[in-house]
Structures
1.
Amino acid sequence: MKIAIVNDMPLAVEALRRALAFEPAHQVVWVANNGAEAVRLCAENTPDLILMDLIMPVMDGVEATRRIMAETPCAIVIVTVDRQQNVHRVFEAMGHGALDVVDTPAIGAGNAQEAAAPLLRKILNIGWLIGEKTPRSRPVPTPHRSSASCKRLVAIGSSAGGPAALEVLLKGLPRNFSAAIVLVQHVDQVFAAGMAEWLASASGLDVRLAREGEPPQAGAVLLAGTNHHIRLLKNGTLAYTAEPVNEIYRPSIDVFFESVASYWNGDAIGVLLTGMGRDGAQGLKLMRQQGYLTIAQDQQSSAVYGMPKAAAAIDAAVEIRPLEKIAPRLLEVFPK
């Protein structure tokens, strides 16, 4: 994979070079010392992946991510030495299309290959993601709905660009929204709690991490909070599971949507937002096949038109809507 490094700290650049050297297939094609230089170099020689620092002179990583995704888009992973202190910047960069975030590998601290492993694993997953071309076959589940039930659920999946999209969508809903909401966002578990707090502060809604064994309930927005998949079980509660282990997306939107199609005992809406790849498309189609309303974000309002495009291509979405029109539609279908 052709990889670029954007970082103004020589020690961090060296740490990344050493980590990448453990995988001979990776080639560092250029190094930029600030975001402005990265924008220019990316236009001249667009890599497969950029490892982007956040805090830099001239132009920071958030603005550089925004510019690159608008002008010469490619996969971007935020790499920082202090991600907890920069949580808001991380979500802002992800809102512009960054795919993930990881700590800068440490030099001289224990086993160098072990220190490089988290970064190399994320790069491997992204390589699968950007190279994935064909949808996987999914079995059609047997519905377990009861027509007499009045329970309501909105299942939402998002990836690159998702934090900003979720902020817009949730701001459009009232605190007394009549349906339960479960969010599956591709984000590392160390950031999930911070993301829930950020969304709660931005939207005014009760956003928190989903807990093992609890049911979705109106008035709560539950965010998948681990690197395991989240599922709805037949008894109506939520559970985290490592299976299927071969899913490159963790947590997988497809896994959750499929469980909703199989086991939700009530009315539901599936919503697939901005993101790279095709996670969620097959699950959304299964929800549609069970008679649920399914909505995909349109191209113009998507930071990365990958997942919604995949859903549209297989006719998984009943409706394709601009981001700002999705919350009003949810309120039409699920009024007070």
2.
Amino acid sequence: MTDGRFNGRVAIVTGAASGIGAAIAARLASEGANVVVADLRQDAADAAAAKLNGAIGFACDVGQEDQVEACCKAAIDKWGRLDTIVNNAGMMLFKTLAEWTADDWLKVLHVDLLGAAFFTKQAFLHFGEEGGSLVNIASVHAQATTANIAPYSAAKAAVLSLTRTTSIEGRDKHIRANAILPGAIDTPMLWDNPNLKSGVETLDPKDVGKPEDIAAAAAFLASDDAKFITGAALAVDGGRLAKL
């Protein structure tokens, strides 16, 4: 499907070698965007980028600010501009509150929160006079969570706050920021979840969506169709959060 909403525009998608990130990168590219597929490993990023028209791969640990800066520089060096950033990279660890160490907390927070913060800073530094759009992939766990993932759910809740602040500070610069709260999405990250395997968390098959569902929402929020939407948090969960 191509309708050209992103023709001539440049987008970075993090965690884009697989799963939700790959679907978002593919959707943006299909609508005309020049896409940087950012992922932890260069070979994985290159392989994913090779499937997309004109995309490039870039190895980026989003928790390292110098690598985030280098990723944005690569986009600008290649295409001369930067218009959209989708902060999708994320990780989960599973321990009880009594087991978490400081290093555990920092490991998760660097990826799930600081990565988005570092890219947000670069957006303010490098988006053009016309502004641009940030889409932060949070989680339903930002609002309703389960046991054993405290740093993940806390980081995702903080991403919602970051999104609101970005919308406030970005308004006069024409920078929009919105968050998506995915529910259960059919990816390896979902099915490898030990809470599901142990029965701590149960899942109705009707509540499982596809990465393309998140990609469609991300493309909308990044596009001019959403030009009057900023600071919003959109649950894309098949109604899972609405259940009593």
